[in-house]
Amino acid sequence: MSTTLIVVGLGLAGAAYVGRLALQTGKLVSQNAHKIPKPSFSSYYKGGFEPKMSKREAALILGVSPSTSRTKLREAHRRIMLLNHPDRGGSPYIAAKINEAKDYMESQSKKSM
Q1: Same domain, 62 and 107
Q2: Interval 9-24: pLDDT, tens
Q3: Cα–Cα distance measured from residue 81 to residue 13, given in angstroms and rounded to the nearest whole number
Q4: Are residues 73 and 106 in the same domain?
Q5: Domain region containing 73
Q6: Sign of the torsion angle spanned by Cα atoms 64, 70, 73, 79
């Protein structure tokens, strides 16, 4: 009889611990949910890619203005790569074009300095 009470007590304590852990994990997930970038498909780049990258195309791919600052360029690149990275199910071709656009924009900003 006392063994049964001990086993039931341990079972309840274990269930309470797992429930508390689940609640804490749920709170952490909901607190960090706003940090994950949301895809916005309202202003995505429509059309194919040009054979040679231009400043206009690079700016359209990254979603920035052609005369944007270096920090905004890097933020835009990071945001888009988080959504399109091949390790997360994105296309390697699209990721290559995003990287090419960033490199092109950075090289153009170096030339204008």
Answers
A1: yes
A2: 888 888 888 777 777 7
A3: 44
A4: yes
A5: 55-112
A6: negative
> Closest by alpha carbon to 68, among 96, 111, 108, 39?
108
**What was the pLDDT predicted at 27?**
64
- Sequence-distant (6+) residues with CB within 8 A of 37 are 79, 82, 83
CB-neighbour burial class of residue 98 (10 A; exposed 0-12, middle 13-18, buried 19+)? buried
Residues 59, 104 share a domain? yes
Cβ count within 10 A of residue 61: 23
**Count of residues in the chain:** 113
Domain count, the chain: 2
To the question of pTM greater than 0.90 for the whole model, the response is no
- CB-neighbour burial class of residue 106 (10 A; exposed 0-12, middle 13-18, buried 19+): middle
Phi, psi of 13 (to 5 degrees): -65, -40
